[in-house]
């Protein structure tokens, strides 16, 4: 099957299939943090993690387990409230060859870094992409990575609730990397950022978090997360952040929710 880029076309998630409309098992937006708090080498490891995940046979096998054996994927980079860049538009992947072509296309894209960490802006931008695809999907998922809490733009929790209320699942890949070989994390402890994502970012059916605190584990974590999303594996019924003794999170930030 040749790699197929899908033309922009408004399509409601609840709309019935029309002539020429393709049915897929999953519509997946990969919303990847490129904020300048990550070094160039860390950005490269992150990008290579996604590239190598799509080159791995496990991912193709997960796609093949679906009822249709086909997914649609888009790759979005984000940072501050005004930076959202679609590196790869909606792409149909239904075979190992398709997945490798997607990986090859991603591998040649330049790496950029931008200021700010607006998770709310990233979620909104990713949500908008679902209105630009001519497919009908059983599931819609936003896979969002980030190395810090929402620090710019709109409050994140109400935006999260808005999208999950429409049937979209948001999964998280919080990145807490040590600096200089010490035990000190960049800004936040690994557990803090994982819990922040669980409380403030993820939501929807079977939402989950896979955190990364070791650069050497980036590739494996990304592949495991993608396989789990594509295969539609159920998450644990109770997240660790809701256990007794967990800190209380304030997900708010100064801003106004548009009506």
Order of helices and strands: EEHHEEHHEHEHH
Distance, first to last CA: 43 Å
Number of strands: 6
Rg, Cα atoms, Å: 17 Å
The main pleated sheet reads as: 6 strands, mixed
Estimated share of beta-strand residues: 15-25%
Q: Total number of helical segments? A: 7
Low-confidence stretches: 1-17, 181-185, 237-246, 254-259
| Average of pLDDT | 82
* Sheet with the most strands: spatial strand order: 1-4-3-2-5-6
* Sheet/helix structural class: alpha/beta
Helix content: 25-40%
CA-based shape: globular
Question: Would you summarize the structure shown here?
Answer:
This protein is of the alpha/beta class and 259 residues long. 32% of the residues lie in helices and 19% in strands.
Notes on the structure:
With 259 residues, this protein is of the alpha/beta class. Helices cover 32% and strands 19% of the residues. The chain is built from 7 helices and 6 strands; from the N terminus they run ββααββααβαβαα. It has helices at residues 40-55, 57-64, 96-107, 119-129, 156-164, 190-201, 218-231; strands at residues 4-5, 22-33, 71-78, 84-93, 135-146, 169-174. The longest helix is centred in the first third of the chain and has 16 residues, at 40-55.
């Amino acid at each position: 099957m040749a790699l197929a880029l899908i033309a922009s076309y408004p399509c409601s998630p609840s709309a019935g299939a029309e002539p020429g409309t393709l049915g897929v098992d999953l519509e997946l937006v990969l919303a990847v943090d490129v904020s300048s708090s990550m070094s160039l080498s860390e950005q490269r490891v992150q990008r290579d993690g996604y590239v190598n995940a799509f080159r791995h046979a496990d991912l193709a096998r997960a796609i093949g387990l679906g009822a249709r054996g086909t997914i649609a994927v888009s790759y979005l980079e984000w940072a501050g409230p005004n930076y959202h860049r679609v590196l790869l538009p909606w792409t149909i992947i239904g075979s190992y060859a398709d997945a490798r072509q997607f990986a090859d296309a991603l591998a040649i894209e330049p790496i950029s870094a931008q200021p700010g960490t607006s998770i709310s802006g990233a979620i909104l931008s990713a949500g908008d992409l679902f209105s630009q695809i001519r497919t009908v999907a059983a599931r819609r998922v936003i896979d969002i990575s980030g190395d810090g809490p929402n620090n710019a733009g709109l409050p994140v929790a109400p935006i999260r609730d808005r999208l999950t209320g429409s049937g979209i699942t948001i999964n998280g890949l919080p990145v807490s990397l040590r600096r200089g070989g010490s035990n000190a994390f960049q800004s936040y402890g690994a557990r803090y950022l994982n819990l922040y994502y669980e409380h403030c970012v993820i939501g929807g059916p079977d939402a989950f978090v896979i955190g990364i605190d070791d650069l050497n584990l980036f590739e494996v974590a990304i592949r495991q997360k993608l396989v789990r999303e594509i295969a539609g594996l159920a998450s644990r019924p109770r997240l660790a952040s809701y256990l007794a003794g967990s800190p209380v999170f304030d997900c708010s930030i100064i801003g106004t929710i548009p009506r």
